[in-house]
Design a protein that fits this description.
Blueprint: H1 8-11, H2 25-28, E1 29-30, E2 43-46, E3 54-55, E4 58-62, E5 65-73, E6 76-86, E7 91-94, E8 106-110, E9 113-122, E10 125-135, E11 140-144, E12 155-159, E13 162-166, E14 177-181, E15 186-189, E16 210-214, E17 217-221, E18 224-225, E19 227-231, E20 235-239, E21 244-247, E22 259-263, E23 266-270, E24 273-274, E25 277-279, E26 282-286, E27 291-294, E28 311-313, E29 316-320, E30 335-339
Parallel strand pairs: 1-25
Antiparallel strand pairs: 2-30, 3-5, 4-5, 5-6, 6-7, 8-9, 9-10, 10-11, 12-13, 13-14, 14-15, 16-17, 17-20, 18-19, 20-21, 22-23, 23-26, 24-25, 26-27, 28-29, 29-30
Length: about 350
């Protein structure tokens, strides 16, 4: 056991009720990869920490600011906090609270607005169908058309002005795939994560996966089926032009609760959890060569940032909050950023 002040893992909790580190935590940290080391592995740069330690929250970049929405916080799973980071001023602000207290919200930005979809009312269960839009100009939330099928832990990503909603969980993991059009406030239901015909590859039911956009195509990477006892390494690619799926080289380290983003010509996938493990592992994928490399691991291993496209500002990928141990018992206020420069 050690004091929080002597271990960086717990030094950023902003939670004075936690005063000792369980002896098992050190064994739970997993930072290695089986992929070859990259010539340029990148680096992590510490940033100003969040006002409220949070995990299982949406992380969305919108016009140069980072929105962290809902999630686990202050020993509850039904947070409605809306924390916004201004990268130019390097300051955090609390903005209009999220309209419903919940966790595992999915979110994406279009223009100057942030859109959110679903979530859980309890810890990883009791999904709801409510969806909202946040106007950054007025600091106001408003309801939009709800999901036809309630769920949480959806992967959301913007493609050509519409938002793709992939997978998630109602009672179990699902393969659903819908598109939300902000211009019409309507959803289009696609054939699930297998394309529109029976001849397409079956991607399967998944939640807690990372998604990234490369050349107009969505990479859906890792995730779980039902629980992190059943993690996957799948790297499935969806082409909106053909409504078809294909498979690329799998993630070297299977895990769920990952974060994924395309930056510097590579998809980087970092963090996540598995039974008895929380990952700092950071792996980079080159779409041109269909290969993976090991990048510099996270300084603080963690999971639970549901911003699958995350917050890329300039050449830096910002990573605020997350859980430093498996499950939802502890949340962090950590905020660091990854860069290849």
């Amino acid at each position: 056991m050690s004091d929080t002040a002597t271990d960086t893992l717990f030094a950023g909790l902003n939670d004075k009720s936690i005063t000792a580190i369980p002896a098992t935590v050190e064994k739970q940290r997993h930072n290695v990869s089986s992929a070859p080391k990259a010539a340029n592995p990148g680096r992590w740069v510490e940033q100003p920490r969040m006002p409220i330690a949070t995990g299982e929250h949406a992380v969305i970049e919108c016009q140069g600011k980072i929105h962290c929405i809902a999630g686990y916080a202050r020993h509850r799973v039904d947070g409605n906090f809306h924390q916004v980071y201004d990268s130019k001023a390097k300051t955090w602000s609390l903005m209009a609270p999220f309209p419903i207290a919940c966790n595992h919200v999915a979110g994406a930005a279009v223009g100057n607005k942030v859109y959110t979809f679903g979530g859980f009312l309890e810890q990883n269960r009791c999904p709801h169908s409510k969806c909202f839009v946040y106007d950054t100009a007025t600091d106001q939330w408003a309801p939009i058309a709800p999901l036809a099928r309630p769920r949480g832990a959806i992967s959301a990503i913007t493609v050509d002005g519409v938002i793709h909603l992939l997978g998630g969980r109602d009672v179990r993991s699902v393969e659903w795939h819908e598109i939300y059009d902000p211009a019409t406030n309507k959803y289009t239901t696609l054939g699930g994560m297998r394309g529109s015909t029976a001849t397409q590859p079956y991607v399967g039911q998944r939640d807690h996966m990372g998604v990234a956009l490369v050349d107009g195509k969505i990479h859906a990477i890792a995730g779980r089926m039902d629980s992190y006892d059943f993690n996957t390494s799948l790297n499935a690619v969806y082409d909106p032009k053909t409504d078809g799926w294909s498979f690329r080289a799998p993630l070297p380290t299977p895990r769920s609760g990952v974060s994924a983003v395309y930056v510097g010509g590579r998809i980087i996938v970092f963090g996540g959890e598995a039974t008895g493990k929380v990952f700092g592992t950071n792996e980079g994928y080159d779409p041109k060569t269909d290969t993976w490399e090991e990048l510099t691991p996270m300084a603080i291993p963690r999971h639970g940032l549901h911003g699958q496209t995350l917050a890329v500002i300039g050449n830096m990928v910002h990573v605020p909050g997350g859980g430093p141990v498996p499950g939802g018992s502890v949340q962090g206020a950590y905020h660091d950023a990854f860069t290849f420069d």
